[in-house]
């Protein structure tokens, strides 16, 4: 958060103290918590209805729905926090279907003893992220668990979006000859989290790339309505996501190491820690696959958007019954790009 | 990235590959053992094999510290974490290595043991400082490279009067292991393993220097080229080895001059010999019992020796019969010779240690090189 970030302009309430079991018991403490923190900051016409469920408008078109739980540690990290991430993560899952996200729901699992001031900071950030993206949180829920049975706060969000006629984006659409693009640098989020993580003193200026991508997707679809595959390379990074698509589409892929954008500071941090930037998570980047003919037009459209300036064509889809993702190394050799085994970094989203 | 990109440059790689292709005698075949897992990793990660002529072969050595640790020592670490209720600090690679009955540190952690991954010995000391009521044990593994930091931790713990910190020492030594391989019947008598020269350790040599290799270059008449871990280092060193073989020389040459000197890091050597002494023997996975090949903590620092502080039940190592890790670590077999490779044993579900660490030969084959082993599309259809 920079000094002129609008989130700092929001006056926080006089909420003091910590979460206790009464905040989840259905009594007046819970009503106060909802009023003073959730309704106050997330305020919109749907929440104002005050019912157990939100009454939404009529929608024309096919609906898309996605859900995502967020358990990240630490809760606050360079370039974001769990609140903003919970909004961006679900918006992006909806957007990766080519859909326009409309509404979000949010449920909070709070641990007894969690400072209310920190909860408010998270909700303020969430409200800002939702407003900035134009996707309101229309309904929510709060539960409290005993101390030791949670880790401060977990947030689960669900998103609903609408798909324009004719759009059919799916991980099973890749065919040999298609082009593979990424919208920007790989590995920023994971390395930012690592720099803040407990037990690891690693100072770095790298910030998370956590951001909503639905506006970028809309610009891309306007340029090339026939985009075949969209996916955000979150956990497991580019490697895991390309392998997922390869298996879903039953194809192989060949990418070029020299073409994959990685910030020098991320590359350096990974070098030092023995990580592969291709395996490190992103929260504000996407992979797109389109036909070879559409590739240059799509690349130009992504690069024209502020969230896609570092976009690149990184490789192509090939026929391969083993569905292997391979990479032409910078050195001139070839290697497999594998899924990571086990966990590379704990709890990064 | 400065100081890194220069050593991965494609144009330079082409030039060296051209020189290798020109100088490698087509009538000969060249078998070079890269001792270190770091070299194995670099060869596969950058696809160095693709730039070599067909008669230049890499034989993968035992220099992956995670891979050579015998199961019994891993079982001891699991026991420390489970039975003695300590906070066990370990480098990340050790977490997933399966011990007896597939028990691993990560499983022990899932069952409630306090196992923590650290990046440095000083992180373990920090955990000890923050938990004065708990016993903290650092699970020390590795070759000469990781030994000095362990010595620093022990000396710091003594200077600052730590009562709750100790080290479970499993540090091993490179020269003893190389001699052991060269003396093995597979190399000396049976000729099953052909070794024409060694890519000498990189980081290890920065500590011990190039001098310790003079003995076996002379004794076993094998050339040694100390090689850095970057792909161009490996390629340049292969070229230097080919030249030695062609000229029938067997010398210790140093390609990694930007880091390695003849005498090594004297300060680190002094620190290590102050804190550690030689063990008469030590069990290596794959190599068996190797004399004078490992270190233990000197009596002067006995207070920080976990083997003295905690009573550990003595167990014999029990290898899984069908797992070929022991032969792979000696260079006798390749990962693809193992029946378990890629079938029941994968990085997701490792059976042997060579599949766990990214420096292990099996993991490198699987993660980076398995496309070479698969049948081409046309043939399989």
From TrEMBL, chain A:
Q: Which GO terms describe its biological process?
A: protein maturation
> Any idea where the PurM-like N-terminal domain is?
50-162
Query: What are the PurM-like C-terminal domain coordinates in residue numbering?
Result: 175-323
Q: Which SUPFAM superfamilies match?
A: PurM C-terminal domain-like (SSF56042), PurM N-terminal domain-like (SSF55326)
Q: Which Gene3D superfamilies match?
A: PurM-like C-terminal domain, PurM-like, N-terminal domain
Pfam families attached to this UniProt entry: AIRS (PF00586), AIRS_C (PF02769)
Q: Which family does it belong to?
A: Belongs to the HypE family.
User: Sorted alphabetically, which NCBIfam families does this protein's record hold?
Assistant: hypE
Q: What is this protein called?
A: Hydrogenase expression/formation protein HypE
What organism, scientifically named, is this protein from? Answer: Mesorhizobium tianshanense
The opening ranks of the lineage are: Bacteria, Pseudomonadati, Pseudomonadota, Alphaproteobacteria, Hyphomicrobiales
From TrEMBL, chain B:
Q: Which Pfam families match?
A: HypD
User: Single GO molecular-function term?
Assistant: 4 iron, 4 sulfur cluster binding
The alphabetical list of record keywords is:
Iron, Metal-binding
Q: Name one GO biological process term.
A: protein maturation
Q: Which domain of life is it from?
A: Bacteria
Q: Which InterPro entries match?
A: Hyd_form_HypD, HypD_1, HypD_2_sf
Family membership noted in the UniProt record = Belongs to the HypD family.
Q: Which PANTHER family match?
A: HYDROGENASE MATURATION FACTOR HYPD, HYDROGENASE PROTEIN ASSEMBLY PROTEIN HYPD
Tell me the protein's name: Hydrogenase maturation factor
Organism name: Mesorhizobium tianshanense
Q: What is the lineage of its organism?
A: Bacteria, Pseudomonadati, Pseudomonadota, Alphaproteobacteria, Hyphomicrobiales
